[in-house]
Write a structure and sequence with these properties.
Structural class: alpha/beta
Number of domains: 2
Number of helices: 13
CATH superfamily of the largest domain: Phosphoenolpyruvate-binding domains
CATH topology of the largest domain: TIM Barrel
Shape: globular
Strand content: 5-15%
Order of helices and strands: HEHEHHEHEHEHEHEHEHHHH
Radius of gyration: 20 Å
Number of strands: 8
Bound molecules: sulfopyruvate, magnesium ion
CATH architecture of the largest domain: Alpha-Beta Barrel
């Protein structure tokens, strides 16, 4: 079964796929063990991993290599955040082929101009493409997939750019017409109202994806009540959790003058051995080292 089919099945079976951000094979493994339905190969997390801003500084090759390494270590379907598609529609043709081959189940492509500026930044510069130009990118993505079940998600940034609900609906309808399988509507409002209003007004046939980072009261229960959302992406909680844990541990080591306290608060090294499949290494040693 293809990765795209697996993700589609998950959405059908559960009604709402919970997709967790990951920035490395290790975080991908932890999300898989936790029980998520899919992984979000987040551009924001991957940029932050390099201590860089999420403003198109990371190359497609860097992101693709990480996605491939993630796909190698987990079974979960991966939704690839390909930002603006790394150029125009011609670049999208190449990108979609590469991401599908690397093991992605879906791509999300956003209607901003290149280079993009991260969406949640207060007062961030947000330039959108002409609708027709972005329709060309969506059509290019759909035409370039080999597996017809590979999912093409068009991300509408009209609300992020402050253009209002009518423009967001107009754009989303145009992206559906161009062939998008799903519409990701993004918002940086602090409450769910803006997205809830969009979803209630959305008359398209394709389902909606949301990333409720800015409006965390949008619980799974509230999402289900709206009826048209089939995927929720937890956009940056892996890297934020990692930063929280590292900041606390690093500060404690210096404060305590040693590792004698923190070593009881963090996982033992055996847990890392488990995540590294050390038992398989031992098995191979027994069998093959002569
Ligand atoms: C990402 O995680 O890279 C996203 C979501 O695109 S956001 O950062 O909210 O734009
Ligand atoms: Mg992103």
């Amino acid at each position: 079964m293809s990765k795209g089919t697996r993700l589609r099945d998950r959405m059908t079976e559960t009604g709402l796929a919970h997709v967790m951000a990951a920035h490395s094979p290790l975080s991908a493994r932890l999300a898989e063990e936790a029980g998520f339905d899919g992984l979000w190969a987040s551009g924001f997390e991957f940029s932050a991993l390099h201590a860089l801003a999420d403003v198109s500084l990371i190359s497609m090759t860097q992101h693709l290599d990480m996605l491939r390494a993630m796909a190698d270590r987990v079974e979960l379907p991966i939704v690839a955040d390909i930002d603006t598609g790394f150029g125009n529609a011609v670049n999208v043709v190449h990108a979609v082929r590469q991401y599908e081959r690397a093991g992605a189940a879906a791509v999300v492509i956003e209607d901003k101009s290149f280079p993009k500026v991260t969406s949640l930044l207060a007062g961030g510069r947000q330039d959108l493409l002409r609708i027709e130009e972005f329709q060309g990118k969506v059509a290019a993505a759909c035409a370039s997939r080999r597996d017809p079940e590979f999912i093409v998600i068009a991300r509408c940034e009209a609300l992020i750019a402050g253009l209002g609900q009518d423009e967001a609906l107009r754009r989303a309808a145009a992206y559906e017409e161009a062939g998008a399988d799903m519409i990701l509507i993004h918002s940086k409002e602090k409450t769910p109202d803006e997205v809830e209003s969009f979803v209630r007004a959305w008359k398209g046939k394709v389902p909606v994806v949301i990333v409720p980072t800015a409006y965390p009261e949008m619980t799974a229960e509230r999402i289900r009540a709206l009826g048209k959302i089939r995927m929720v992406i937890y956009g940056n909680h892996a890297i934020r959790a990692a930063v929280t844990a590292m900041q606390a541990t690093f500060a404690a080591i210096l404060k305590d003058g040693g590792i004698h306290n923190v070593h009881k608060q963090i996982v033992p090294v055996e847990e890392i051995f488990r995540l590294q499949d050390m038992d398989r290494v031992k098995e191979a040693e027994k069998r093959f080292l002569r």
